[in-house]
Amino acid sequence: MTAKKLTDNETKALFDRLPDNRVGAADLKYLNEVLSAGFGNTARTNIEARFETAFAKKFGIGYAISHNSGTGTMHSCLIAAGIGPGDEVIVPTHTMASTAFVVLQCYAVPVFVDIDPKTFTMDPEDVKSKITPYTKAIITVSLYGLSPDMDPIMTLAKKHNLIVIEDNAQCFLGYYKNKLVGTIGNAASFSFQGSKHMTTAGDGGMVITDNEEYATRIRSAGVLGYANVSAKPGATSIPRDIRQDWSFKRHLSMGYNYRLPVVCSALGLGQLGRLDDLVLARQTIAALYGDIIKSCKWIVPQYVPEGYINTYFAYTCRLDEESVDFDWRKFRKKFIELGGDGLYGCWSPVHLEPAFQNMKFYGTRKEQAPHFHPLYKGKVHSYQKGDCPVIEKIQPTLMQLKTGYTQWEKALGQAEALDKTINFFNSGRR
Question: Tell me: the pLDDT tens digits for 3-18?
């Protein structure tokens, strides 16, 4: 399922509403409000609370907890779930490495699963095969804007009493079978890094959950384990009369300093107000690319099952190298020559990254990794080529086309370059 195709007039109106440099009037209004209030040891505006309240409302969820990054969000979720030494956490290997790094940062063991070759998202059948008595959580990833198949994953989680954390860094306002992506698992993580659908000026993140107790633990994990914090919007600091007393014991547990700066909250609140347009613009650009490649037999786009809505962080497709006499690099070179704004390859499978091959996560000796902790009784002591054969085979052929343009003319230029590139190779010229 894709978004409704816009008319020419609707498309023009949409892109006319988007600021060219991604900074709009609302962003400046809220930012100026914060700057005018000045800075102190604690915030002088309630902008964090307003941002969290608005974000939770947008997703129809009870609680939103802001963070300094989409990595910090997932780390806090795992800490709050009690993940630690001896535990395993299932993650897809086709993702940004942070999804696995946060597991290591809890001194737990990442267990990698393969992908569905059509949707490029994690394969529920491989998830099922990787669950062991030591599995405590699953981190799903909605990749390129598309949710994985969540129903069987949630069924497995319920059967084995597992926490499910949705990594939705690349998926804002996507849908899975009439469910808003981010409202399906126990918690969901969003990233506001600069390339994402909305941003808080470079980095930032948000966790949403309907569980107040879990939300409070997530908050505590992200603010140094402080006492007296809560799931309430903006509740990141301790009231002055409490914290100034000499007898106050501040830290109930170990935590991290993952708070989102107030200026970032201001920008996030402004961007959130036009999130629907930001998502629709990417979907409209994706539809433009889709119209061009639909008659091309050797480019296979990411498959969007019925009942799903893809929000197209990127338009991702696979070059069927077995049916052509050129490869990914030749296609990319020609695309750039004909005016393309680069063609992005997809990450190396995480289990094949050097860090996961040398296993030097803590200290310099391989056996110091969490996989050799005395509390860990599982069998994952190394990662090998062949562990996830589907992604290992197709990763070199995947290509991402940018969808984050705020000017329709630039998107049209990229579509024209793509059309010319396809025609070049179809013509037999090399």
Answer: 568 999 999 999 999 9
